[in-house]
Write a structure and sequence with these properties.
Pfam families: Hydrolase_2, PG_binding_1. This protein has 229 residues and is mainly α. The protein has two domains: 53-110, PGBD-like superfamily/PGBD (Muramoyl-pentapeptide Carboxypeptidase, domain 1), CATH 1.10.101; 114-228, Cell wall hydrolase SleB, domain 1 (Arc Repressor Mutant, subunit A), CATH 1.10.10.2520. The protein has nine helices and three strands. It has helices spanning 3-33, 53-64, 78-90, 101-110, 114-127, 133-147, 156-160, 167-170, 180-190, and strands at residues 201-203, 218-222, 225-228. Strands 1-3-2 form a three-stranded antiparallel beta sheet, with helices on one face. α2 (53-64) crosses α3 (78-90), α5 crosses α9 and α6 (133-147) crosses α9 (180-190). The longest helix has 31 residues, at 3-33.
């Protein structure tokens, strides 16, 4: 192979490699642009007859709230419409069955991703081990209540992994496989059941190492835990 031929092949290879990288980058940008963004303003308007990934997201979130129990097939049909109307009525929106920016914003504010639900279930399973089901729901409720409070981080992950917030994070028990009832408890809390009445803290008075936590006002006692604000 002559030097000129080698250089020509190198030039062609380099050009082709750049073109391939550009195409991959472009396809990646397109793929990410098609994913639900998590913001109501960015999501498209959906109504009966709509078919796309956002309908899957809509059905998943309605199911999470107990408002949709059919197949999550990405098709906006009669049952999806019923779920949307029920959601709009529950959250004080115009019950027109059309999913616009206000409905999306309310959905994102009141539902959670699969990762967030898994993290919640892990904390519940570890922190409320041996507690009655109501006590498991109560632990999940504390985390959801913190999400609404300006005193805590603004995300589920931020709340769970805040330094010193949960013993199960510190000792690694959060990474054990959650029991089935923990997921059920998380969904019960998401759907509105809060046995604590708005608690932001919980602890076991027999094992609590922090003196500060015992100074908080107790508003509920469930199982071995007390719940406070």
């Amino acid at each position: 192979m002559t030097r000129s031929t080698g250089r020509e092949r190198e030039r062609r290879y380099g050009k082709g490699r750049i073109e391939r990288i550009f195409i991959i980058a472009l396809l990646s940008m397109v793929a990410f642009s098609l994913l639900p963004s998590g913001t109501g303003d960015a999501a498209p308007l959906l109504k009966v007859g709509s078919r796309d990934g956002y309908v899957y997201d809509l059905q998943y979130r309605l199911n999470e709230l107990g408002l949709y129990h059919a197949a999550q097939d990405g098709i906006f049909g009669r049952l999806t419409l019923q779920g949307v109307v029920a959601f709009q009525k529950r959250y004080g929106l115009q019950p027109d069955g059309i999913v616009g920016s206000k409905t999306w914003q309310a959905l994102y504010a009141n539902t959670y991703t699969a990762r967030e639900i898994d993290l919640l279930a892990r904390v519940v399973s570890a922190e409320a081990q041996g507690e009655p089901f109501e006590g498991q729901v109560a632990v999940a409720s504390v985390i959801l209540n913190r999400l609404k409070s300006p005193l805590f981080p603004s995300t589920i992950e931020g709340i769970i992994f805040e330094k010193g917030a949960f013993e199960s994070v510190q000792n690694g028990m959060i990474w054990k496989e959650p029991v089935k009832s923990a997921y059920q408890a998380v969904h019960a809390a998401i759907r509105g059941w809060d046995p604590t009445g708005g608690a932001l803290f919980f602890y076991n008075p027999k094992t609590a190492a922090s003196k500060w936590i015992t100074t908080r006002k107790i508003i509920a006692r469930i199982g071995d835990h007390v719940f406070a604000i």
